[in-house]
Automatic annotation (TrEMBL):
Keywords from the named record: Dioxygenase, Oxidoreductase
Protein known as: Glyoxalase/bleomycin resistance protein/dioxygenase
Molecular function GO terms recorded: dioxygenase activity
Domain of life: Bacteria
InterPro entries referenced in this protein's UniProt entry, alphabetically: Glyas_Bleomycin-R_OHBP_Dase, Glyas_Fos-R_dOase_dom, VOC_core
Domain VOC: 4-125
Magnesium as UniProt keyword: no
One Pfam family from the record: Glyoxalase
Lineage: Bacteria, Bacillati, Actinomycetota, Actinomycetes, Mycobacteriales
């Protein structure tokens, strides 16, 4: 089996509000938006927004309201870029969970929760390379 992730789907409470956050707030551009779902092409991977209840039904797993222990990361090239992404997210309705700071592994990172509570890390890791196409090399 190939070692990869193809799609991350976020279950959202209000698809229109989630689209506004990602598109108006963060400047993302949808690739496709068939009825009830929206897809964003990211470097080497795709992300979808799908109604939380619809996703629970599709997965046959109830939404229990607890933090799942999963975060999504957006790596940046500089500390200033990390700060800018966190500020943009907060200005668009995200909740800052941890302001950016230098961390034990030698990088710089902070966390925000999007309007549906999905936890995102924004990080700069000096040991990783962000390629010109946006992909990350570890």
């Amino acid at each position: 089996m190939d070692q990869r992730i193809s799609l991350i789907t976020l279950g959202v409470d209000d698809l229109a509000r989630a689209r506004e956050f990602y598109e108006q707030g963060l400047g993302w551009v949808p690739k496709s938006a068939p009825d009830g779902v929206v897809f964003y092409q990211l470097p080497g991977i795709a992300m979808a927004l799908f109604g939380r209840g619809d996703l629970a039904e599709d997965a046959h797993h109830p939404v229990d309201g607890r933090f799942s222990g999963i975060t999504i990361a957006i790596n940046q090239r500089t500390e200033a870029d990390v700060d800018a992404v966190l500020a943009q997210a907060e200005a668009s309705g995200a909740t800052i969970l941890k302001p950016a700071e230098r961390v034990f592994w030698g990088g710089y990172s902070g966390y925000f929760a999007d309007p549906d509570g999905h936890v995102w890390e924004v990080a700069m890791n000096p040991q990783w390379t962000i390629n010109d196409d946006g992909t990350v090399s570890i």
